[in-house]
Amino acid sequence: MATALAQPAASVFGLQRQCRIALRVSPAPLRLTGAVRRAAAVQRRGAVAVRAEGSSGGYVEEQSFRIERVSFGTILSPLGIGLMVYGFGAFFNLLPGGDVSSLLLIYGFPITLLGFALSYAQLKPVPCKSTPEALRLRDSQATDIQKQVREDVTRYRYGDEQHLDEALTRIFRFGQAGGIPRRLCPILTGLREEVVDGQYALVLEFTTKKEQMTQEMWDQRLDKIQTFFGPGIVAKLKETEQGMDVSLICDGSGAGRGGGEKKDVLPPLMPGMKPRQQA
């Protein structure tokens, strides 16, 4: 019986000893957990600060709506197909409206063809990034040509090989004496609005074949670029990983704003319209 009584007592003392050991050991993990939490909180605050710092000088997207930024091909194609499908269904008495089925087919077929043709020939808009400071200065400093170029390249175009095709042809004289081969033609892939030394600047981002399109080719045509997109701007070049950035910076003179005598600079937006002009 003494042995039987001794065993429960030993088990009780063992349980107490384990509890004391657990109490002595437990604060360390608790302190470690608290340190981890504090480090995570500091890291989160740092991440928020980095995001805030990056967004303060970042770019914003203009929210204004322009009908030119809508693809007519993506609108007309589904519309024409819908008219044709309903017209066939009504013609075979699968859908109501058999009296107008012929009209639906007559109009649906050419609308579908026109939508496919526009989708095939369309040139997508170039993405444009703007800083808040540049947006505030645009209306008061941007020249007529800067505005015209920005509006032309940020809309859908139809039938053109690329954006600013006519302008690049005149500047680089593709296939002509003193010009460069057509295969080296720079491609406009982006647009930025920035502020340089307190003046509004429109930056054209070109992608080029760097192994063939050299810096010297651009430098030789810097004056031509400035004259072509002037007056009232100063053109600067900056080499990038993709190719070249051409900055059209307002010179502060106010020239090139408000119309006046102009000369043709870009082709008309659509056949039959007047050529777009340079101030």
List the helices and strands and how they pair.
Elements: H1 2-25, H2 27-56, H3 72-91, H4 101-121, E1 122-123, E2 128-130, H5 132-141, H6 144-153, E3 157-158, H7 165-172, E4 187-196, E5 199-207, H8 215-219, H9 222-229, E6 233-239, E7 243-250, E8 263-266, E9 276-278
Parallel strand pairs: 2-4
Antiparallel strand pairs: 1-3, 4-5, 5-7, 6-7, 8-9
Helix pairs in contact: 3-4
Brief summary:
This protein has 9 helices and 9 strands. The protein is α+β, with helices and mostly antiparallel strands. It has 2 domains: 67-122, no CATH class; 128-278, no CATH class.
Question: Would you mind describing this structure in some detail?
Answer:
The chain is α+β, with helices and mostly antiparallel strands. It folds into 2 domains: 67-122, no CATH class; 128-278, no CATH class. Helices cover 49% and strands 17% of the residues. The chain has 9 helices and 9 strands. The chain has helices at residues 2-25, 27-56, 72-91, 101-121, 132-141, 144-153, 165-172, 215-219, 222-229, and strands at 122-123, 128-130, 157-158, 187-196, 199-207, 233-239, 243-250, 263-266, 276-278. The protein has a 5-stranded mixed sheet with strand order 2-4-5-7-6. A two-stranded antiparallel ribbon has the order 1-3. A hairpin with a 2-residue loop joins β4 (187-196) and β5. α3 runs antiparallel to α4 (101-121). The radius of gyration is 34 Å and the shape is elongated. The model is unreliable at 1-16 and 18-56 (pLDDT under 50).
Features:
alpha+beta; 49% helix; five-stranded mixed sheet; 9 helices; disordered N terminus; 279 residues; single chain; transmembrane; 2 domains; DUF2854; two-stranded antiparallel sheet
